[in-house]
Structures are given as C-alpha cells and as structure tokens.
Amino acid sequence: MELDPDEVFRDDGDDPENEAYQEREATKDLVVYLVDASPRMFSSTCKNEDQEEVTHFHVAVSCISQALKTQIINRSSDEVAICFFNTREKRNLQDLPGVYVLKFTGSEYLDLPTAKLIKEFDQIEEMFMKDIGSQHCIVSGSRENSIYNALWVAQALLRKRSVKSVDKRILLFTNEDDPFGRLKGAIKLDMTRTTLQRAKDAQDLGISIELLPLSRSDEKFNVSLFYADLLGLEGDAITQFLPSAEDRLEDMNLQLRKRIFKKRIVRRLTFAITDGLSIQLNTYALIRPTVTGAITWLDSVTNLPLKIERTFICADTGALVKDPPKRVQHYKNELVKFSMEELSKIKQVSSGYLRLLGFKPLSCLQEYHNLKPSTFLFPSDEEVVGSTHIFVALHRSMIRLERFALAFHGSSTNPRLVALIPQEEIVVAGGQIEPPGMHMIFLPYTDDIRAVEELHLDVNSAAPHATPEQIGKARSLMKRVDLTNFSVCQFSNPVMSQLCKDIMRYYKH
Predict the structure, then answer these.
(1) What is the CATH number of the domain that holds 46?
(2) DSSP at 31
(3) pLDDT (tens digit, 9 = 90+) per residue, 386-421?
(4) What is the pTM of this model?
(5) 486 φ, ψ to 5°?
(6) Which ranges carry the Ku domain (predicted)?
(7) Helices marked H in 261-386 — which ranges?
C-alpha cells in the first residue's frame, strides 16, 4: 500500500470545509523585537560559534536576522517590528524618549519579513552608533523609564493590527537583569510598579512577553531581581528559567527559534472519561513537513494581491445563482436534493469526542502499531475548569502502573482507535527537554497491517532471498548505527534551503 505523504501528516481536522480548519489557517504572528541598546550591551562580550569575541548587541542582532530568514520561508504572512530602547535618538508614534523603532524603506513600522528588510537590517550595526546612538539605562536622578516606554510603544504597534485569529508577542533582548538597580527608595518602587503594571496591561490584551537574557561569562543573569515578576514566574519556574550563562549563549539561536515557532494548537478535543465527566485537551503536531508558501495572485498593473471570489452561474439561464448550492443524488429515477449542512451530518460518524475505552499494559503496544505521526495532548482549563487536575491525576496513575489508555477518536471522515501514552517531564540544567503530557498514537485496523513474510513462504518462489552472509553483514551494519542523540532538527529541508538561497540571490542582484 503506497502512502500519500500529505495524507500521513494531515490531521483529522484538516478539512477545508471545517470552520476550525479555516480559523487555524488564518492564524498569523505579530512579533515586536525589543533590543536593549545601553552601553553595557556593547561593552559585554562573549564567544560565538567561531570562538570570536562579539558583543551582546551583535548576538541579539544576529539572532533576529536568523529568525527573519526563517520566518520569511515558513510564515511569510507574519508581521514584525524591530525596536531599540535606551537610545540617544527617538522615533516612535508616541514620541517617547529613549525608544527608536526601525522603519525600513517603503514600509510601515510593522511589516512583512522580506529579503529587502533582512538586507537592510544586516547593516544596522554599522549605522547604529552614527544615526541612533546609545545611552545609559535608568540612572539615579532621572525620571525617564526607557523599558516602560519600550513596552508602551510595542503594545501600540501590536494594537494597530486588529486581525482575527492573530498571536501577538514581544521578544525582549537584554543583559541588564535589574534595570532599576541604580535607584533607591520611593522612586525605585514607583518605577517598578508602573513598569510591571504596563506589562500586565499588555498581557491582558493578549500580548505575550518573552525574555531572551544575555549573561556575561563572569556573571549569570538573575531573573529573580525584576523579570520574574514581569513574566509571572514563581517557585520552580524561576529555577527552570535560569540555565547557565554558557548554555544560554551557545543555544541562543535555538532558544529564539523555540519562541518564534510558537506551538500552535492543531485543534481542541473533549476527552470523555466517563458518562458525565469530560475534560478539554489541546492537540499539537510535533513533526510536520515544511512546505513552500501558498501562491499569491497579483494584479499585473498595481502589483497588489487579488481577492478571489467564486460565483455560480445557472447552466440553463445564465443567471447568477444566489441560493446556497445543493448536491443531488439519483435514486429510483428521481433527484434527491441535499444541502451542504445535511450532507455534512450524513457523513458525520461521531461528534469528534475522544472517548476513553479502557487501559492496557504498555507491553501490549508494538512498534508497528504506530500508523502515522502522533499527536501530543495537553490539558486546558479555558472552557472546562479542572481539566488540568484530572489530567495530571490520570497521567501519574498511568505512569505508575505502566499502562496506556485505549480510546475512540471520532471524526467526520476517519474514526479510529487510538492509544494514549503518557510521557514524563525531562528537565536538565539548560531547561525543559520534554514536557509532561500524552502522545496519541493512531492504531491500525487489521487491513492496515501487511505480512511481509507472505512473499517468502515458498522457498522455490522467484522472490530474491538474502544469503546468510548478507544477513550477517546487514545485522552488523544495523548494530553500528548510533541514534542516541539523533534529532530531526539536525537536518534541514533541502527544498527550503534552496528556496532561501534563490530569494537572497535575487535581491542581491
């Protein structure tokens, strides 16, 4: 049986006529990069991959440039803005001091990531000190609060775009763990309070704030001094957020990619445990193939995107059909009409719930039972309060008893039996490696399993057979294959890499 790659990686909710699918496809990211431009960012240095001494400002700029190149390939519809604070010059719509928003040629402050934008941004270090300039952080005797102003400007940039189904984020680069460390008394308390309130106001509007700290070789970034309160970190979350300075600097590009590629929810499921007891789960696709962006049709005169509209015309009269289209089925020399809603209900096998059937030992699950890429499940209390507590209790019991859950996953077109396998959390010094949750494995039906040995039952058949020597060498080769630290992230998609090179070559010429 030949498998279709698109079908293997497609989720049950990937139906273009499904409202949940259309809403998910419309989701885009609005990102504002906030970069600290104080003299300390230029005086503090670290070693890059080539063991060369570079400034923290250079590290931040390099990470943003790399993120823009990745965004332009994977999420070309996202919009970005780059903002510096603690600057000598100011440029922002609010005319606030110490904040400079980059405005590239022919673009607004919040713009699509393009090759031209990346090319101009790569020259930012050369023109920064000449045109923008750097100034010291908040000092004693000054009432200017640059980080407060920066959050205000970033919030205003993101509020300009009132798009449905949009994610808004602020990525903050700094090596100053206590921006109010030089202040004392009531002034410090007042500035801290107003800044934290500004961050809370932004988060209440649906804007998430991510911190990318830069540590010096002789001093670790202490997030508990100020940014723990700004990010809402408490207890163990603070400890997990504090990797060593060396790991943080070496892994800076990877950390930025983790924040750029936000874990978008594939769909929401209702997990029915028993009659009358259900919880809400969010599903995530851990691995998906990277594909080229959708084709955008442009007007040949204005070069603006075209809006495509579909109109039905009656074949008999040539008039425009205004009523919703209907489908027909021949039955006993008659045409039976169905509306799209009725046809959808006929095809519906289940309500889309995930229903628990029972538990089995993990030893009953075989490797060949994994029919297609799994889906990761994590609880959510947004609609069903208490889902997390019930999920955690079930998760811990399954791990302790070494069981997996057998469940029915119903969809409109493909009802299946699935196995829910619990995964324990893995935490190292550099942070969380594996999150706690469950993997939903799609189990095969009997017809999905093919016995390869059927071709070789007859010794006299024409099918080729390996000799004992060939089998021995193949066995030795497989034993030497080391996949201990293997990760799919180690290999990039060659099609995407070539596309990026072609785009950069085009704008270079």
Answers:
(1) 3.40.50.410
(2) E
(3) 899 999 999 999 999 999 999 998 766 678 889 999
(4) 0.57
(5) -70, 140
(6) 317-460
(7) 340-347
